[in-house]
Design goal:
This protein has a single domain, classed as Nuclear Transport Factor 2, Chain: A. The protein contains four helices and five strands. The relative contact order is 0.18.
Length: 151
Amino acid sequence: MTTSAGHAASRLDIRASTPEEEVLRAAEALVAAFGAHDVARYFASFTDDASFLFHNTERLITSRAAYKQMWRSWERDGFRVLGCRSLEPRVQLVSDDTAVFTHRVRTRLAGEDSEMRERETIVFHRDAAGRWLGVHEHLSVDPQEGERRQS
């Protein structure tokens, strides 16, 4: 005899996710939103007080709102993301609710002939609702010539 709870469980894919898997999924969603130039979804991947440090900006950006304002000014100048790929993703769990995500990132932008080759670190924090959100992003130029696919 199958109980209704047992029957329901057999119909659902119930797997316990590890924090590392959860962070990887959050990072994949963030990269997908960025690659699709889905501004709302991309910025929703960060906390309000997230900070951003990019190799192509003069200073640390100290909030999501300040970054979004900068993004909008780039768009007025023709900025548009056409695609983004993540290579060699890695998650380092620092505590139960903090993780460091690193990867090599390849981005195609409108008006650019070649793909941008960068390395990125995003510090994620799990909020009270259980969502992993970026609290800091650091982007640098990737000196690596060859590429290795996601592992």
